[in-house]
Amino acid sequence: MTTIAILGQGSMGAGLAGRLADRFALNLGARQPQVGQLGYAEAVAGADIVVLALPYDAALAAIRTLDLAGKTVVDMTNPITPDFAGLRFGHTTSAAEELQQAAPGARVVKAFNTIFASLLSAPRAATAAVPVFIAGNDEAAVAAVAELVQAAGFAVEQTGALDAARLLEPVGMLNIRLGYGLGQGTSIAPTWLRVAA
Ligand SMILES: NC(=O)c1ccc[n+]([C@@H]2O[C@H](COP(=O)([O-])OP(=O)(O)OC[C@H]3O[C@@H](n4cnc5c(N)ncnc54)[C@H](OP(=O)(O)O)[C@@H]3O)[C@@H](O)[C@H]2O)c1
Fold it and tell me: Is the shortest distance between the CB of 178 and ligand 1 below 6 Å?
């Protein structure tokens, strides 16, 4: 059975764990592990896929210090500025590419950054058509994350190599602006329609 380490038991980490618990072996990683949880390093050891459900700076610290060589690493970060007004990266790089650069041996895949945590506690049927945009440079890692996304009860929208994260992170920011800034709430998600010509 594939083992997935989820680092960070906040809104996204706990929500994703709830969606994946019956389909994968999960190593739940926490800074201060409670019963049933592990420290980050222990959670990563033996895991096939490592999900960084962490704020960007914590994700960067984790990817620098943990042994992630050869592992598929899911980056879901929206690297927003402290005032929530914008993104810290753009145009020429992205959080995902910065993480990849910090750990060249890891196989970083961008996913879930446009999915509000509240969707993870919605009924599975409600999210089955909601796309999770995926970007990554390693074909096998992208395929493994696509499988994880479907197992989590979402649709997959492939966006190509990891530099597509430069485009996906602004979409995550737009989602935040619509949800919080413009008051649409957190039951929204961006999608890509195919229109019959
Ligand atoms: N919330 C959303 O709707 C949403 C949507 C899309 C993407 N994201 C992205 O997903 C990531 C996680 O977001 P979240 O909403 O789950 O955040 P959260 O509820 O604040 O949880 C983040 C978790 O990261 C761990 N952590 C490690 N170092 C930390 C530090 N220095 N400061 C704070 N937390 C630290 C903590 O878990 P432990 O103590 O258990 O280790 C904490 O519970 C972020 O990068 C965010 O941009 C969030």
Answer: no
